[in-house]
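LMBD2 protein: structure tokens wanted.
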Amino acid sequence: MSGAALGLEIVFVFFLALFLLHRYGDFKKQHRLVIVATLLAWYLCFLIVFILPLDVSTTIYNRCKLALNSSPAENNSSYVTLAPSKQKCLKPWSYIPDGIMPIFWRVVYWTSQFLTWILLPFMQSYARSGGFSITGKIKTALIENAIYYGTYLLIFGAFLIYVAVNPNFNLQWNQLQTIGIAAANTWGLFLLVLLLGYGLVEIPRSHWNGAKRGYLLMKTYFKAAKLMTEKADAEENLEDIMEEVRKVSESIKYNHPLRKCVDTILKKCPTEYQERMGRNMDDYEDFDERQNSYPSEKSLVKLHKQVIYSVQRHRRTQVQWQILLEQAFYLEDVAKNETSATRQFVHTFHSQEPENKIIQYFYTPTVEWYWECLLRPWFYRVLAVVLATFSVIVVWSECTFFSTKPVLSLFAVFIQLAEKTYNYIYIEMACFLTIFFLSICVYSTVFRIRVFNYYYLASHHQTDAYSLLFSGMLFCRLTPPLCLNFLGLTHMDATISHKNTQPTAYTSIMGSMRVLSFIADGFYIYYPMLVVILCIATYFSLGTRCLNLLGFQQFMGDSEMTSDLIDEGKELIRREKRKRQRQEEGENRRREWKERYGNRDDSTRNRAVHTDQKESSFSETNTNRSLSKYTRSNGRTERDRIELLQDAEPLDFNADSINDDPLESDSGR
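Answer:
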């Protein structure tokens, strides 16, 4: 049973990571190595989150055995019999035998660290490179990552010097490994607290605001105005880049050495631009080596990189605009149907995609009305209250988890109460809900954050390779400190609980943080308290207000710029709605015309074709009769004319002089 639980979680987590990657990435257009590397990074991070509760329950069972100074009589038995007091210690249903979890954590952890510090940064530079060969892309990636790797080597060297100079430490390989892990976890914990402070407030608030129809509709109008500006900018940028590509394509001819590079660039352009450039090309014109106006290979590499970026951005804005229009139309339909007396949901536009018949059977217009107009707002409010309660518990535990006497961390209290009764199902569920909520707060912030146009996770297969790889790097760096923070909240980490008990297999892989006392006793304990300040700043939207002051438009209800953008977006949505209504009306008219007059037109065409065939056959018979009548009389004339043409001499256009006088030509003839 224990092996089955571990195997089921491994398979389930793999399909979960594959589903999310399919939602954000594009398996058909993106490179396979990018897909595989991102999938592996996401899979390992999600796997750590799902497997850690099993490690906790197994550790509690092992502590039970050690505390009672007994060992199980049989490895496959469900109970451990205790000789002195004849007590029994229940073995968890998901018990993992000794020796498996340390190997598992070692493989998972070091693979994720290899991905985040070496492979994924290199693949990022490789994916963004505009080189035309594998060698050129590798060279560019190595140059770009030289500074990146040098910075982290400098940080690691500073830690190494500190440990070497301190006379209290004897530098060994295990301690050196612990220093490297501590450096990585310190960087991850610094970023983790920032993202966690935002997610703990924003996730409950977003669900609470999701129950407000007017709020969602106004925010959609605001997004429409911003997205239209970005869409126009992307189209203008694409036009400028395509103009440069056209000039380069016209200047570099078919027999130029760099023509292969130009053809590679043209393949990345949209189809309409390729056809337009193909019509204007003259492949029969040779290039002149004496001219110096030809672009260099370096400039073509830069142009190739710009083409990839501009095409991806243009396609992403087009897809996002269509999705935003559907969302705005649906929210307007919800606002109209709230006052419906029939209590049946009526859509303004029919769905463009075919719906599942099973969903249509159960999700009827009446069920849709009750869900959208009546039940969904209350469901979102209740969910927001539950999530807010979890956020308060997390903030309290982050500020008090270092206290062991008395135990103030609520998560530690819950786990210790379940540990006394050895209720492993409750322990695993409590651990899973706790770490799952922490992961949602952190990972959702990674999915929401946007760094201009360099990093942006867009759904519906619109995320570029650079952003996918960057998200994999963030996940691999955030997950280990997230798990250590969870073990600290539940007092399963011996460094926090100050108890000489058996540590979890995950903590044993991390090593003892006592090597660096100022990190173990200082940074790891007091820095998470900063989450209180970050939660307060997020609640009052201080970051949003600062960005708004700097000129970055943010949705704020008390801002004039926000109201102007809402009005602009509302007008854009109204214009697109009228346009789609005219299209549907035209299609309906054509459909009605075809249904009403289609058969009549077909019969009329058949009659016309039959009449034409009769007329053509009649004209052919008359023509044959007339030709047979005059063929004999004109046969001799045709033979004489052919003989005259054969006797005529051809004109000599190479003669020295040509006489143009018609009189002389007549006399000559």
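DSSP finds 21 helices and four strands in the chain. Strands lie at 79-81, 88-90, 450-451, 455-456.

Cheers.
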